[in-house]
Specification:
About 15% of the residues lie in helices and about 40% in strands. It has an eight-stranded antiparallel β-barrel. Strands 1-2-3 form a three-stranded antiparallel sheet. The longest helix is centred in the first third of the chain and has 9 residues. It is globular, with a radius of gyration of 17 Å.
Length: about 210
């Protein structure tokens, strides 16, 4: 998963084997999820984007080949059946790692706090809460019979004296038939704040 506008640059960075500025991994079943970013200003071959350095930061999150076929934007039938009783009271996924929100201009990253969560329930659908260190929270929701994680709009709340994001977007993919893990890409933007994005992993809490 990568911002749509950055896809061509990302593919070229990957083909050129240019090491990301920061990278992390999380094991899932027989494979792993890899996330990271290249910071704005990173030196690159001119073939990447027509210059010798990136004009903005590029973030990504990807699944290894072993689990890539198991990704889905919605809960599979087997996952829905397995979680049927739990969905009556709520199924929670907690943030376990990622880049934080990376500014496109290469400035300071906004950390995402570990009590950030995604909750699924029959009554509320999908509820997304991204808690930002010292910068309020991003909230979003989606009513879907299959609990889709595609294109959930985010609003910025409790941002205090900080400039508030004018909008945001959450996209996620359930991993595996049991949907115990979610990989995600979070975006937020505003005229005063600038553009931010960051990938990360949420893991379902045991019940």
């Amino acid at each position: 998963m990568v911002n749509v506008a950055d896809r061509e640059v990302f593919e070229e960075l990957y083909l050129q084997n240019i090491t990301p500025s920061a990278q992390g991994t999380y094991p899932v079943n027989s494979g792993e999820i890899v996330w990271g970013y290249w910071k704005s200003g990173t030196e690159v071959p001119a073939s990447v984007d027509g210059s010798t350095s990136l004009d903005k930061s590029i973030v990504f999150i990807a699944a290894s080949d072993e689990i890539s076929d198991s990704l889905s934007a919605s809960l599979s039938e087997s996952a829905l059946n397995a979680l049927r009783d739990q969905l009556e009271t709520g199924v929670t996924f907690n943030w376990v790692g990622g880049t934080g929100l990376v500014p496109s201009d290469g400035g300071d990253i906004i950390p995402i706090l570990p009590n950030s969560s995604i909750m699924l329930s029959n009554s509320e659908g999908v509820q997304v809460e991204i808690l930002l260190d010292g910068f309020g929270r991003l909230l979003g929701s989606n009513q879907s019979d299959a609990f889709s994680l595609d294109g959930i709009n985010l609003t910025h709340e409790a941002c205090g004296d900080s400039n508030c994001f004018e909008g945001g977007k959450f996209n996620g993919r359930y991993i595996g038939e049991e949907a115990a893990t979610i990989m995600s890409l979070i975006e937020a933007w505003g005229e005063q704040t600038g553009d931010y994005s960051g990938p990360g992993i949420f893991v379902r809490l045991a019940q």
